[in-house]
Design a protein that fits this description.
The protein has one domain (9-29, 48-245): Immunoglobulin-like, CATH 2.60.40.1520. The protein has helices at residues 89-92, 130-141, 197-200, and strands at 9-16, 19-29, 48-56, 60-67, 71-81, 97-106, 109-116, 123-124, 158-159, 172-182, 233-242, 247-248. The strands form 3 sheets. Strands 2, 3, 5, 6, 10, 11 and 12 form a 7-stranded mixed sheet that branches. It has a 3-stranded antiparallel sheet with strand order 1-4-7, with no helix packed on it. The protein has a two-stranded parallel sheet with strand order 8-9. It is mostly beta strands. Helix 2 (130-141) links the parallel strand 8 and strand 9 (158-159). GO terms for molecular function: nutrient reservoir activity. It comes from Anopheles atroparvus. InterPro entries: Hemocyanin/hexamerin (IPR013788), Hemocyanin_C (IPR005203), Hemocyanin_C_sf (IPR037020), Ig_E-set (IPR014756). It holds the Pfam family Hemocyanin_C.
Length: 252
């Protein structure tokens, strides 16, 4: 229980926006598959591959926490299936997926945190299409547009559009699970000379994690129900709705 509990920290409530999923048509530029005799004609042709993809409307949630503690802490957020009986979590815990993890600063008293799905730590947006990037480079070379040398995008991560399951028209019952744990700074890792974080996405270095708790914590172990439910945890029942309205490359 001492490992799970965070003395003086109580999650009072969590409120979500309406959770809505939909399918959209996404046009991916595959123009670079065309054989070209000269790059001068590259922009005269465009080939797009259309695919139907699951997406969701961006959402936010508000968490209210009472704390006797002042300092840094880590919030972990999981999404998983709705279960009815207290002890069913022993079976369903393997279906809870961590979708966010972030650092917060507590002050003594009431603390309110608002988090948007676009800021979730493990998710990434669509990358810039090759043709768009090529156009920016060529315009920069020709002096027609300033090219941003510091432009960077995540090259690994879970697609933001797949954070939520499809849902049902009349609402699919699901649960979000939250746990707040004390923040302890990690030790410095010694990395091999051949290690490249851009290739490995930081895996194996520990640099992508705020602390040293294992992946999936606290669902990484057999649950002892005599001690598991503590006040720094919170289960939030939600409904995920789905609309059949199709959207073209929709951006919210």
């Amino acid at each position: 229980m001492d490992e799970l509990n965070f003395n003086g920290v109580i999650i009072k409530d969590v409120a979500f926006d309406k959770l809505m999923t939909y399918f959209d048509f996404f046009d991916a530029d595959v123009s670079n598959v065309l054989p070209m005799q000269s790059t001068d004609k590259y922009f005269d042709y465009s080939v797009f591959a259309r695919q139907r993809r699951l997406n969701h409307k961006p959402f936010s949630y508000t968490m209210n926490v009472m704390s006797e503690y002042s300092g840094k802490a880590i919030v972990r957020m999981f999404v998983g299936p709705k279960f009815d009986r207290f002890f069913d979590l022993q079976f369903y815990k393997k279906y809870f997926v961590e979708v966010d993890q972030y650092l917060v600063d507590f002050t003594a008293g009431k603390n309110t945190f608002v988090r948007n799905s676009r800021d979730f730590y493990w998710s990434v947006k669509d990358r810039t299409m090759y043709t768009d990037l090529y156009k920016k480079i060529m315009l920069g070379i020709n002096g027609q547009e300033k090219f941003a040398l510091d432009m960077s995008e995540a090259h690994c991560g879970f697609p933001d559009r797949l954070i939520l399951p499809k849902g049902w028209t009349n609402g699919m019952p699901m649960q979000f699970y939250f746990i707040i744990t004390p923040y302890t700074a990690q030790s410095t890792y010694e990395k091999a000379d051949f290690y490249d974080k851009t290739v490995s996405c930081g895996v194996g270095s520990g640099m992508r994690y705020y602390d040293t708790l294992p992946m999936g914590y606290p669902f990484d172990r057999v649950i002892n129900f005599n001690y598991f439910y503590t006040k720094n945890m919170y289960f939030k029942d939600v409904f995920i709705y789905h609309t059949d309205e199709m959207k073209m490359n929709q951006t919210f």
